[in-house]
Amino acid sequence: MRSNAAPPSTVRRTIGGLCAALIVGVLGSATILVAPSTSQAAESTLGSAAAQSGRYFGTAIASGRLGDSAYTTIANREFNMVTPENEMKIDATEPQQGRFDFTAGDRVHNWAVQNGKKVRGHTLAWHSQQPTWMQNLSGSALRQAMINHINGVMGHYKGKIAQWDVVNEAFADGSSGARRDSNLQRTGNDWIEVAFRT
What we know:
alpha/beta; 5-stranded mixed β-sheet; 8 helices
């Protein structure tokens, strides 16, 4: 007699997919860098499944949600990499030119480290979420402000961050493959290289 039941590997993939969908719904976003092969044994968490092949399973964490026990319980159990949601972006880390504030970014970083997670920094150079002072700059003044910002943030987090998103969304939406028309792009075509070298 034949059974109509799905094979165990299909059941594991389905349960894993449902678990990922639930976590994304609760936490808001997730970064999936690996899908374990069906030949691997099922793992109890998404992070441990990714770790089997030397990869990670990460999520964005909002510092304002770190007091929510359901949020932190799921984040702590399922993920082995954390990215601050907005806390390390330009407007959060340098709200006034030359005056840095790492309070919210440090809160996410410290929670992650205390819970055995690696941290991915996000982001150093971006056309969006710039503070007003930066939006009002152009040309060489904006280029120098970008360099100073990167140096300030990198100096604060030196040796503490596993990976960085150095430049975010430099290319236009759609299929053109063109550079995005942004204030950073208008400082010169080499702005991306300058950001990475800095």
